Amino acid sequence: MDLPQKRKRISYELTNSQTSSREAAPSSSTNGQAGGFVEGSILRITMRNFLTYDHSEVFPGPKLNMIVGANGTGKSSIVCAICLGLAGKTAVLGRGDKVGLYVKRGCSKGSVEIELYRASGNLIITREIQVENNQSTWMLNKKHTSQKAVEEAVKELHIQVGNLCQFLPQEKVGEFAKMSKIELLEATEKSVGPPEMYEFHCELKTFRSKERDLENVCKEKANFLEKARQRNERNKLDVERYYMKKRHLDRIQMLEKKKPWVEYETARKELEGVKKEREEMKKKLKSLKEAQEPLLRKIRSVESQLQPIEQQMKELVSTHHKPDSQESILYFLYYIKIIQDLSLKQTEEADRQKRIGHTQLMIKDLQKELQNMGSMEDVTPQIEAVNAELRKIQEEKAKLEGEMSDLRRDKDEKSSKEIGLQNRQRSLDDMMKVKEDKLRTRFRDTYTALKWLRDNRDRFEGNVYEPMMLVINVRDSRHAKYIESHIPLNDLRAFVFQRQEDMEKFMTEVRDTQRLRVNTVIAPEESCSRRPPSRPLETLKPYGFFSYLRELFDAPEEVMSYLCYQYKVNDVPVGTEKTKSMIEMVIRELQMRMIYTAEEKYTVKKSNYSSNVVSSNSALRPSQFLTMTVDADERRQLEEQLRVQSIDQRMAAIREQQAKLDRRDNELRANKKKLSELKGKKRQLEQKISTKQDRYLPLKANCVQLCCDFLSLHTSFISFSQCKVYLALQSAGLSAEKTKLETDCRDSSAELKRAEVVYTKLDQVKNNLLTTCKTLMRRASEICNMTPGETAVPEELHQAFSQLPDTLDEIDAMLNEEKTRAECFTGLSDVVEEYNRREREIQNMEKELDDKTNALTTYRQNIAEAKERWHLNLKQLVDQINERFSDFFRSMQCAGEVDLHSENEEEYDKYGIRIRVKFRSSTQLHELTPHHQSGGERSVSTMLYLMSLQELNRCPFRVVDEINQGMDPVNERRVFDIVVRTACGVNTSQYFFITPKLLHYLKYAEQMTILCVHNGPYMLPPHKWSEKAFIRRAKRRQIP
């Protein structure tokens, strides 16, 4: 018989059989609730031209459905029909990737119709498959619809044909063991968890992913911000030097603005002085003119008196002598000359006496002043002392300047070191904050008590330590798992007290008053922290041990004492893989109560009855609380280094000393100037006295010559006659008086002329100064950007001018000094521009970092809330699965456990379900993997895990195809018993168990439905098949 004809007869045979089943249970499609069906259970499967079937209908029962038939009869075709009919993907089946391949060969189309139980009315899903284009037509309750609508309807009934925990086809049985822990957790959540559990998990993973991204962004921004701050800190000195130069330039600009005003003010004051001198000279000129007028009148009066006397003398001469007498004329002329010379000598004598008196008076005044100065001590030693002190001050200033330069270099070096110290301290604080956040998330009451303790620490007399998980510092984070495995969690979150009364006071407040659930312990009175181990570590190193637990972490004295006393951390060794490889010898020879290998903890006990050594081991779980290491000594050293007196204070002290030296220097220079002026003045007085004395001696010599001349003239004059002498004397007196008056008039005229010259010069100087003042005023206004006509200094400049020198010499000196200092600063403009740009970047980055940090805090709050909703329910679910899974394995004289596994509690995408099994008593529990266990062991583990989900099942049915292949008869029988017992329970859903064979003498239940798939060349046509006749013939064969 050819293959197509065989397939057609198979289809007919199954069709006939299923028709008989429908007649036997007609209520299955109409009243599913009465038959024990749950929402979403399969009531009917109809296949047309589908794989091996022309037309067939299957009516499964509400509990366990055993689909039995030889290989190739079409059992798995029913599984394919369920998957494709409920909008499953072809990849789930592991057969053909095109849906057209599932249509019976030789047909252009095929269809699958599935009727699902629903309390509000059964749901009929129809899928018609076209071979030509691999397309499908969908109908819901005989109405055309889309595939998406079918998927939504199936999802509402919690059907997940893509979930291996619900739908396990034959080709996917081996893949269950290949599923990772993460995939198994997600499949379990979808299959038996509440609807929101998987959503919360996805939400947590999304939040954690965003949190991780935000943490990376915050870290990158913080690193960039720190680097920018460091760069700016390095450039800060150059910026300060730039602004120092700018201050010098601003002062130069202000000095250049004030200088024309000072010049103008100096010129204005000089103009005022010249104006005052001019007015005084004008008054003096007027007084001189007024004083000269009486002299001119007296001269005219003397001339009027002298003229008659001279006339009488002429007449007298003409009377006694002949006019032609030559001798008389000469004699008269000689006489007149003698009279005139005598009068002139008298005038000169009067003038000489006047000058002698004035000179003597000046000499006396100068000598008196010199005598007064002579009583003062010599100022030369004082000047030398001042010079010595000035040199000493200059040396001190040079020394201070050297120290200042050294401090500047030290400050630059210390600034970079301080930045590093502050960053390290900030890093340590962040680590401590992470540990506190974990404490707050897991143990909120303990965290609340911690905050209260920090606010009220002064109420306790002895030492009180925060929860151990905060004060214990693991030196290497890789060793944290040993500490957490050894110290119970209740002690890790316990407060440690030194005094009993302090602990009672604390518990009264937090437990009785605040109703907080916290743990406390008290340290032993005698310290045990330094208690030596029972044997030296050197004796254990040959066995692979590298340390005792105590040496792996740091803790305060009392905390370490408690741990040594209570948990013997000083006597528990930690080993490596080498220790594990020789564990039997280690246990036998060392006989230690507890040891650690690289990944396991071993507890060794000795029987009190048989003296046998019994050991047990357990795998170490990753650390959750102690992975963050904070070195307490390093933190304390950082705080001490940061508390060291800053260089700025020492620099300020040096600047203050420099200011004092500058003030002392100015005082000494002023004193030196006064002493130098005093010494110069004494020398000037001596020179003036010498000059006056040199002028006085010629005046005295002239006195002797005048006396001789006067006696000579007087002798000559006696020879004249009495009358002539009388007239001559009278004429001479008048002539002398006239001469004196003329001399005084000449002196007055000369003085008047000199006064006029001085007045003219003063007037010219006044005009020049007035022009200069106007020019300086205009220049000062232009420099200060004043409006034309404005003469008053603006208020803002007046305030600045008040802090600058007021004399031109001081301004020029300061101007030169400021220019010299400004020239010392070069090439700083680019640095400042970069510094300011980076400062703006730092400000923007700080704002962005704050925003990101706030967003990160929000995400962490969302994570905490979502985790609180998800984690506890998931833990309870896994515990329930583990309880059933362990019971199933225990009933098979094997061991197995299911736990929630996570390498990092915060990485929610790394959470998974770990299955560990043990089929022989001589072995340890091992994780279920595709390679470690045999095929049968994997099948048993898979089947029992699925059965552990059965009573928790949220899905309406489960399909397992030929999972018993590869099992040995013992395990197959045990598994079958578990399947029957579990799947036929009260609160279980529909279960499809497909198998090609069954063992003899298995235990069956009344709730089971057995669907037999037949195949063969002698099958009756469908219309001739009779189930009653078949049963009657079978009974007849059993009769002996």
From TrEMBL:
Pfam family, one: SMC_N
Recorded GO CC terms: chromosome, telomeric region; nucleus; Smc5-Smc6 complex
Name of the gene: smc5
Coiled-coil spans in chain: 264-291, 383-417, 654-695, 828-869
Residue ranges with Polar residues bias: 13-32
Location of this chain's protein in the cell: Chromosome, Telomere; Nucleus
Protein family according to the UniProt entry: Belongs to the SMC family. SMC5 subfamily.
Protein origin, superkingdom: Eukaryota
Complex and partners: Forms a heterodimer with smc6. Component of the SMC5-SMC6 complex which consists at least of smc5, smc6, nsmce2, nsmce1 and nsmce4a.
Protein name according to UniProt: Structural maintenance of chromosomes protein 5
GO BP: any one term: double-strand break repair via homologous recombination
Main localization category: nucleus
